[in-house]
Write a structure and sequence with these properties.
Layout: H1 2-25, H2 35-40, E1 48-55, E2 58-62, H3 65-73, H4 75-78, H5 87-91, E3 99-106, E4 109-113, H6 116-124, H7 126-140
Antiparallel strand pairs: 1-2, 3-4
Length: 146
């Protein structure tokens, strides 16, 4: 009985020690930029590893504890659409990493783009492009290629 208790304690300790390492294995969302800053500061702002949390399989970094707490309270409001992939490319059925410096907030949602050209194309018909990206995202989000 004592042996089993010791082994269980060791297993729990191993899991607790591994948890920070598991978080580090998660992809870094928005290349480390703070998603809340787009809404509060109106610009991309580099986040800090000091204020980091995992949401929806990705690590998010924040410029302050206040931004982290705002995100934690309402992640769906602040998280970028499509896990931060380029919204314009998704509207065309292609998964592509975005550049956090190319972004727009529309209807309360944060969209990021691979290029300024993608951003400009997206805003020409935001509703239609967002609808196409959403439809394609449902099929593409589980695919392996990125």
């Amino acid at each position: 009985m004592l042996r089993r208790t010791i082994l269980q304690g060791m297993a729990v300790s191993a899991v607790l020690v591994a948890m920070p390492a598991l978080a580090q294995e998660r992809p870094l969302a928005l290349k480390g930029y703070d998603p809340v800053a787009y809404f509060t500061d109106g610009k991309p702002t580099q986040g800090s590893a000091q204020y980091e949390m995992v949401f929806d399989g990705q690590r998010y970094r924040f410029a302050s504890a206040q931004h982290r707490d705002l995100f934690k309270a309402n992640p769906d409001k602040y998280a970028p659409q499509f896990s931060g992939l380029c919204a314009m490319n998704l509207s065309r059925g292609v998964k592509r990493e975005s550049d956090p410096h190319n972004w727009v907030i529309s209807n309360g949602n944060l969209y990021v783009f691979a290029s300024e050209t993608g951003q400009q194309g997206f805003v020409k018909d935001t509703a239609a492009n967002a609808a196409k990206a959403t439809a394609n995202w449902k099929a593409l989000k589980t695919s392996i290629t990125q």
